[in-house]
Design goal:
This protein is α/β, with parallel strands linked by helices. The chain has 2 domains: 119 residues, Glutathione S-transferase Yfyf (Class Pi), Chain A, domain 2, CATH 1.20.1050; 150 residues, Rossmann fold (3-Layer(aba) Sandwich), CATH 3.40.50.11810. GO terms for molecular function: CoB--CoM heterodisulfide reductase activity.
C-alpha cells in the first residue's frame, strides 16, 4: 500500500474543500493511505518574495514533519507544490541562511535532511498508480466530451526545480484525462497564467488573462475546463461566475477539478465528489458518461 503525508495547504480547506474530498475518495479506491499531520502550517508561498527566511522556515518545517514520520508528501495545490520544491532546492545548497533555518527547525524538536520526496497529486496518479490501473477503475467512460486542461504555472516552472513535466510540451495531465475517455483538446493559451495571482492587485488584467484563456478554450470546442490547482479553480469557477454575472452576453465555460472528473468515471457518488460545491453548474457533465462496463 502506498502511504503519504497529505498536504492540502490553506486555500483548499477554506475555499475549495471539494478538491480535498474528491481527491481522498479517488485515492482511497487506489489503495493510497493518507496521513494527516495536524502540525502542518502554510507552505510559505505568500512570503517567498517578501522574507526568504520566513518562507524557508514555514516550508521546511512541513518537510521536516513529514520526514520525521518517514513519509513522502502528497500535495494537492500547485502553489504549495512549487513552494515546497523551491525550499527543498534552496536547502540543498550550503550557507549561513540554510544553517540558521536548520537551527530553528532543531529548536522545534525536528530534524531535516532532505529525505522526503514532494509529490504532486497528478504525479502520484500518473507515475505511482499508473494509467493502466486507472483505466481498470474507470467503470463509465466519457463520450464526446472535450476538456481544456489547465496545468497551471507552479507545477511546470521552473522545471529544473519542480521536475513535474516538460514545461513546453507537457502531456501528463492530458493522458490522465484521456484515461477517462474524455478528449483533451489542444488550445492556444493552454500554458498561459490563469490570472489568479493578480486578483486583488490588478483585477482588470487578471480578468483579461482569464478571458483570453476562456475564448481560446471555447474556440477549441472545449465543453469544460479541468484544473488541478485551487488558485486556477477559483479563477475559473468563482471569479468566472462573478464576471459572467457582471457582463451580459458572456458565455461561461464551467470548470471541473480533475478528481471530480475521474471520480465520476469511477462511479463515485457525485455528492462525495462535491459537484454541487462548484460555483458554476457542472451537473451536465454526467450526461457524457456511458453506461457501466460489462
Amino acid at each position: 500500500m502506498m502511504r503519504y503525508s497529505f498536504f492540502i495547504g490553506c486555500q483548499i480547506p477554506s475555499r475549495v474543500p471539494q478538491y480535498e474530498t474528491a481527491a481522498r475518495a479517488v485515492l482511497k479506491n487506489f489503495g493510497v493511505e493518507l496521513a494527516d499531520i495536524r502540525q502542518f502550517n502554510c507552505c510559505g508561498y505568500p512570503m517567498r518574495n517578501v522574507d526568504k527566511k520566513a518562507f524557508l522556515l514555514s516550508s521546511v518545517k512541513n518537510l521536516a514533519l513529514s520526514e520525521n514520520q518517514g513519509l513522502d508528501m502528497l500535495v494537492l495545490c500547485n502553489c504549495c507544490f512549487g513552494a515546497l520544491k523551491n525550499a527543498e532546492h534552496i536547502m540543498a545548497e550550503k550557507g549561513p541562511l540554510q544553517d540558521e533555518v536548520l537551527g530553528k527547525i532543531r529548536e522545534m524538536g525536528l530534524n531535516y535532511q532532505g529525505k522526503t520526496r514532494i509529490r504532486h497529486y497528478l504525479s502520484v496518479l500518473y507515475h505511482d498508480t499508473g494509467i493502466a490501473a486507472i483505466k481498470k477503475q474507470v467503470h463509465k467512460t466519457y463520450k464526446e466530451l472535450n476538456i481544456a486542461v489547465q496545468y497551471g504555472c507552479h507545477a511546470l516552472r521552473p522545471s529544473s526545480v519542480t521536475q513535474f513535466d516538460d514545461p513546453v510540451a507537457p502531456s501528463l495531465f492530458d493522458e490522465l484525462v484521456a484515461a477517462t475517455g474524455a478528449k483533451s483538446v489542444d488550445w492556444t493559451n493552454k500554458l498561459e497564467c490563469c490570472g489568479a495571482p493578480l486578483m486583488g492587485t490588478n483585477d482588470a488584467l487578471s480578468a483579461d488573462l482569464f478571458s483570453r484563456k476562456r475564448e481560446a478554450a471555447i474556440k477549441a470546442e472545449a465543453d469544460f475546463f479541468c484544473t488541478s490547482c485551487p488558485y486556477c479553480q477559483i479563477q475559473f469557477d468563482t471569479v468566472q461566475q462573478m464576471l459572467v454575472e457582471d457582463s451580459a452576453g458572456q458565455k461561461a465555460l464551467p470548470s471541473i477539478l480533475f478528481p471530480q472528473l475521474l471520480g465520476l468515471s469511477m462511479n463515485i457518488d457525485p455528492q462525495t465528489l462535491g459537484l454541487g460545491a462548484n460555483k458554476l453548474d457542472i451537473s451536465k457533465i454526467e450526461s457524457y458518461l456511458s453506461k457501466d462496463k460489462e
